[in-house]
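Q: Structure tokens for this one, please.
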Amino acid sequence: MKFLSIYKCAKPEGIPPTQQEMEDMGALVEESTKAGVLLAAEGCLPSAMGARVRLTGGKFTVTDGPFTESKEIVGGFALMEVESKDKAVEFIKRFLKLAGDGECEIRQIYGD
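A: Here is the predicted structure, written as tokens:
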């Protein structure tokens, strides 16, 4: 089964990870990729460089960043292939231990 995890960081936006955090995360990514669990993962640039596009009643609204609600800002994503939702939760717990405070929403991908 494939799952998408959407990461929302509790840290203020724009604070880069430390060298040690980058090394620890790199080790997890390498291990998980070799094991066939992690298919793709990327972090996002600050919301100031992004936009939100909304369609309401046939009209589009485009709002440029930065976005004020930090709990709503996506900091990155991971696409994983595991046997169950429980295994996806297990992997995300390992990720969050390295990433620090925050939240990941896990959603199964259609067809799997």
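A few notes: The chain has one domain: 1-13+20-44+69-112. Residues 1-13+20-44+69-112 form a domain with the Alpha-Beta Plaits fold (CATH 3.30.70.1060).
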